[in-house]
User: Which sequence fits this backbone?
């Protein structure tokens, strides 16, 4: 988790976070989330002092209050759409099936 010091409005396409205490720097292409709403980092610009401005794709669908944490491991709520696959358990201990997921919009 990294804090978003100034917060960001719903619909924002860039945010500023403080990655000073992050285990590693945020990468372009990384998927982050806030309050179970995932988004992908499309560009980054260091602003000094651990602050980094991130361009994000999928504009924020929910505002980030000032100081709220942004998760470095993305979380989202999804539901299985269509018919449920029949996943079995056999001697191979591995199953390959195709799932169709749809983001659950609150």
Assistant:
């Amino acid at each position: 988790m990294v804090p978003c010091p100034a917060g960001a409005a719903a619909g924002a396409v860039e945010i500023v976070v403080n990655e000073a205490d992050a285990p590693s720097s945020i990468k372009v292409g990384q998927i982050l989330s806030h309050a179970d709403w995932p988004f992908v980092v499309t560009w980054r610009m260091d602003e000094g002092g651990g602050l980094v401005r991130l361009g994000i794709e999928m504009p924020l669908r929910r505002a980030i209050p000032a100081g709220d944490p942004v998760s470095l491991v993305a979380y989202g709520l999804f539901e299985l759409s269509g018919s449920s696959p029949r996943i079995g358990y056999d001697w191979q201990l591995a199953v390959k099936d195709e799932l169709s997921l749809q983001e659950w919009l609150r």
In short: The two ends are 23 Å apart (CA to CA). The mean pLDDT is 87.
